[in-house]
Amino acid sequence: MAYIDDREDIISFALSAVASLLKKYNVDPKDVGRIEVGTETLIDKSKAVKTHLMDLFAASGNTDIEGIDSKNACYGSTAALFNAINWVESSSWDGRLAIVFAGDIAVYEEGAARAVGGAGACAMLIGPNAPLVMEPVHGTHMANTYDFYKPDLSSEYPYVDGRLSNGTYTGALDKCYATYRSKMARRFPAAEPVTMDGFDYAVFHSPYGKLVQKCHGRLLYHDWLADPTLPLYAGLTEEATASFKDTPVEKTVSDKAVEKTFVGLGKKLYQERVVPTLTCSERCGNMYTGSLYGCLASLVGGVPGDKLLGKRLAMFAYGAGCASSFFAISVRASTHEMFEALDLEARLAAMEVRPCQEYVDAMNLREKTHTLKDYTPVGSIDDLFPGSYYLERIDDLYRRSYGIVPEKTVAA
């Protein structure tokens, strides 16, 4: 699980990720016409994180950049991505590129939930002729729930109903997948019905691995309901399914027999389709809005580009409260350049394992300094990657200033 002390915040995350994207892909700042931000890590009730990103474009003189922050728990990044893609496809598009930033600092008060925290961020470049192509059909489910929320603005910590949260996530997946299948059937009436066999990989919002494995099994349950004659289910006996065969879907959300049956049935598929997407999640923990796209980065950064070409990815986005979508991405060109630029294996390997007490100390420091002004952070910058942004100072009017970790120099 990744964590930070008082030297980083969501703004430094965003500056680091977007600056790195511009550099790695040699993007001219003048060629960017939209920036969308998805985060739930708020440090200001009015001023958007996106406004801070404009500092990266000041030297170029480019102030004509549309887009702003989107917020709803872990879903804001997907709203941001949809907004960016819709802009590129619209009559308003001016031919320039869009950037989507997704990231959060996931922290919990002392207790059982603290172990499912984490931190991380990513930035995505959106434009024409991309190797990863968003398919047009989305299955979306939104509702008013209190499974996870942050009403206390003096604290970083959320209010969480763990049992409700898991059930809401699973129920949202049910609704989204059903809606997606229905929309696909209407749009492509001559095509075969949607099943998970139509996807090579499944990429989930990943609060923690066990929930992802359960929900992969959940999708196989839905495919079984639609067509129990599919080859995958040939070994399922009447006895094995008797307890839930005629149970309404909504009544099976927490049914252990359903869970055990289809998680067990899908073990091999889970290893093939889902495990390659979990590298960042396993190392960095829950990244909230960055979670789904960290899982996408795990796939792109872990599978060589020629092996991903032609593959199709199922994507499930979820944010508590709740907002969720099921959609698909097709790999239409080699992702080799992205694989090389991400350099994911080396970067994750460079992260250091620290004693638990250092994590506890960092959380205590963040808790004590969360609302301070006229404050200079005390955390070290020695552990930050070269080129990373960090918080230098919060003045007496709460205005934040940032520094950059120097790039390493090689002596001649």
UniProtKB/TrEMBL annotation:
<keyword id="KW-0808">Transferase</keyword>
<comment type="function">
    <text>Catalyzes the condensation of acetyl-CoA with acetoacetyl-CoA to form HMG-CoA.</text>
</comment>
<dbReference type="GO" id="GO:0010142">
    <property type="term" value="P:farnesyl diphosphate biosynthetic process, mevalonate pathway"/>
</dbReference>
<dbReference type="GO" id="GO:0006084">
    <property type="term" value="P:acetyl-CoA metabolic process"/>
</dbReference>
<feature type="domain" description="Hydroxymethylglutaryl-coenzyme A synthase N-terminal">
    <location>
        <begin position="1"/>
        <end position="131"/>
    </location>
</feature>
<feature type="domain" description="Hydroxymethylglutaryl-coenzyme A synthase C-terminal">
    <location>
        <begin position="134"/>
        <end position="403"/>
    </location>
</feature>
<feature type="active site" description="Acyl-thioester intermediate">
    <location>
        <position position="74"/>
    </location>
</feature>
<feature type="binding site">
    <location>
        <position position="210"/>
    </location>
    <ligand>
        <name>CoA</name>
    </ligand>
</feature>
<feature type="active site" description="Proton donor/acceptor">
    <location>
        <position position="40"/>
    </location>
</feature>
<feature type="active site" description="Proton donor/acceptor">
    <location>
        <position position="205"/>
    </location>
</feature>
<dbReference type="GO" id="GO:0006696">
    <property type="term" value="P:ergosterol biosynthetic process"/>
</dbReference>
<feature type="binding site">
    <location>
        <position position="214"/>
    </location>
    <ligand>
        <name>CoA</name>
    </ligand>
</feature>
<dbReference type="InterPro" id="IPR013528">
    <property type="entry name" value="HMG_CoA_synth_N"/>
</dbReference>
<dbReference type="InterPro" id="IPR010122">
    <property type="entry name" value="HMG_CoA_synthase_euk"/>
</dbReference>
<feature type="binding site">
    <location>
        <position position="165"/>
    </location>
    <ligand>
        <name>CoA</name>
    </ligand>
</feature>
<dbReference type="Pfam" id="PF08540">
    <property type="entry name" value="HMG_CoA_synt_C"/>
</dbReference>
<dbReference type="Pfam" id="PF01154">
    <property type="entry name" value="HMG_CoA_synt_N"/>
</dbReference>
<protein>
    <recommendedName>
        <fullName>Hydroxymethylglutaryl-CoA synthase</fullName>
        <ecNumber>2.3.3.10</ecNumber>
    </recommendedName>
</protein>
<comment type="similarity">
    <text>Belongs to the thiolase-like superfamily. HMG-CoA synthase family.</text>
</comment>
<dbReference type="GO" id="GO:0004421">
    <property type="term" value="F:hydroxymethylglutaryl-CoA synthase activity"/>
</dbReference>
<dbReference type="InterPro" id="IPR013746">
    <property type="entry name" value="HMG_CoA_synt_C_dom"/>
</dbReference>
<dbReference type="InterPro" id="IPR016039">
    <property type="entry name" value="Thiolase-like"/>
</dbReference>
